[in-house]
Amino acid sequence: MGDAAAPPGGSEPSLSPGDLSALAGPGAYPDDPSAAAGVEWVQTHLSQVFLTGERVYKFRKAVDFSFVCFTTRAERNADCLREVALNRRLAPDVYLGVAPLLRAPVRIGPIAETLERAAAGGPEPEHCVVMRRLPAGRDALSLLARDALSDAQIERAAALIARFHEQHALGTPAPFTPQQWRQRCVGPVEDNLRLLAQAPPGLLASDVLHELETRTRAFAEAHAERFERRRLAGRAVDGHGDLHLQHLWYERDDAEPIAIDCLEFSEALRRIDAAAEVAFPAMDLRYRGAAARAERFLRSYARESDDFDLYAVVDFFASYRAGVRAKVASIAAMDAGIDPAQRARACESARRHLDLALQMLAPRGIGALVLVGGIVGTGKSSVAAELAEAVGGVVVASDRVRKRQAGLAPTARSGAGLDAGLYDPVRRDRVYDGLLERAAPVLASGRTVLLDATYSRAIERDRARAFADERDVRAFFIETRCAASVALERLARREAAGADASDAGPAFHARSVARFEPPQEWPAAARRVVHTDRTDWRLDLRAIAAELSS
């Protein structure tokens, strides 16, 4: 898996033992008064990291792995500049710049945006990345460990990454040939499998490795069209590339998240399918025993990005991400320079991540198609959201599909009535087509999909039931009801807030009542009514969730 302890011949060493010893003391930081309280020294498989009270100083190790080469000082210094520039996209005020390592005495030089030039006749100095130190315990992994990571924080992270991907999309179609795109999607997975196979005997279970290789290659061969479909749809992004929970931070409970430590050293591993990016935090949540939160993150991202097609490939990429963590942990487990206790933990992490990689490619059960319909203001969205949480399902909302098809922001107002503008019959049919189009990859992944729309006409419901029959999945219809006075109050409150994707205000209510065709055509055994103006309506949802999960 590479040699971290002894760089190949001809390489330029990074930090000498004397440098390391000096950097572990406060005297090496003349411009950082917070170092007087002490310096913490941490190392990873790629970096030597020194932490003072207020700052972080990160030096690259002179390592050569198959996925990164830092054997020369020029390579390491260039990567410092890349790290600062690329990470400012998601953490603009955290990356302060780069600083040279000066000698006689050993110390950190001034922070700058450019590299320090070599002294006359001397070598270019080694540089480090300098960061503002973030508050301890505020990364998503630490919050999760103490059960302090909220649903709202998970949804804010999904929204952040969706915006980031929109800003850094690589075009439609993505600028690769089909062969190049397949290599981007599958090549790193195959490379990672080869590296895992090089682990010392006994570190990783050979039978698990063999089965993982079999399932990975079978998926890649059987579903090549899924990757190509996403290239054509423009789902390639210049992403973060290493978005696990320790890289996601909330400086306060109510703060917008930031993400640090992007994968700056490899454009090939960073310019990827957006699904490969979001698969990482989802995998990490699942690894930590938070599978429901993993699904919440994915469906929140799908909602914000309108990328429901990600479900066609996200489990493949989640398997890959688990395999990458197994590889990284295996490297750490073999690094003699790392503390023995840390190495033992890395060994256990490698084995557990490998098991998860295999699990993510196991066949899922069969999901269901659930229509959540009813008159406007009766609580469809609330019912759909709660059911999705209960069954690990995915909500596709007609209001968001309508705005997306029109090229509008979700909260933009159309200014038209129920039979005009975005709501004319042709566009209404397009919306219901769009719901089923987005449902297809979700169902193919084995998950349940909940379609949040009025479904006021029997013809729309019939088409949805035929769609489910074609895919041999169960179809349910849940009708939401409440007193007219309650619905009108909700609609007025929503209209005043102006933060919802729905255009329906109180003026829509009477027309919605008049046009709603009772779903008598739907099989009674698969039809339920939820009265959302009752105090115990969530109890009804529990029974429905149990049915959907059976």
Question: What does this entry look like structurally?
Answer:
A hairpin with a 2-residue loop joins strand 4 (64-65) and strand 5. Helices cover 46% and strands 13% of the residues. The model is unreliable at 1-9 (pLDDT under 50). It is elongated. With 550 residues, the protein is of the alpha/beta class. Strands 1-2-3-8-6-7 form a six-stranded antiparallel sheet, with helices on one face. Strands 14-15-13-16-17 form a five-stranded parallel sheet, sandwiched between helices. A two-stranded antiparallel ribbon has the order 4-5. It contains 19 helices and 17 strands. It folds into three domains: 17-132; 140-359, Aminoglycoside 3'-phosphotransferase, Chain: A, domain 2 (Alpha-Beta Complex); 368-549, Rossmann fold, CATH 3.40.50. The protein has helices at 17-23, 73-87, 140-145, 151-167, 178-197, 206-222, 224-232, 267-270, 274-287, 291-305, 314-333, 340-359, 380-391, 398-405, 425-444, 458-470, 484-497, 506-515, 537-549, and strands spanning 40-43, 47-51, 55-60, 64-65, 68-69, 95-102, 107-108, 127-132, 236-238, 248-249, 258-259, 271-273, 368-374, 394-397, 449-452, 474-481, 527-531.
List the SSEs and their pairings.
Layout: H1 17-23, E1 40-43, E2 47-51, E3 55-60, E4 64-65, E5 68-69, H2 73-87, E6 95-102, E7 107-108, E8 127-132, H3 140-145, H4 151-167, H5 178-197, H6 206-222, H7 224-232, E9 236-238, E10 248-249, E11 258-259, H8 267-270, E12 271-273, H9 274-287, H10 291-305, H11 314-333, H12 340-359, E13 368-374, H13 380-391, E14 394-397, H14 398-405, H15 425-444, E15 449-452, H16 458-470, E16 474-481, H17 484-497, H18 506-515, E17 527-531, H19 537-549
Parallel strand pairs: 13-15, 13-16, 14-15, 16-17
Antiparallel strand pairs: 1-2, 2-3, 3-8, 4-5, 6-7, 6-8, 9-12, 10-11
Helix pairs in contact: 4-10, 5-6, 5-7, 5-11, 6-12, 9-10, 9-11, 11-12, 13-19, 14-15
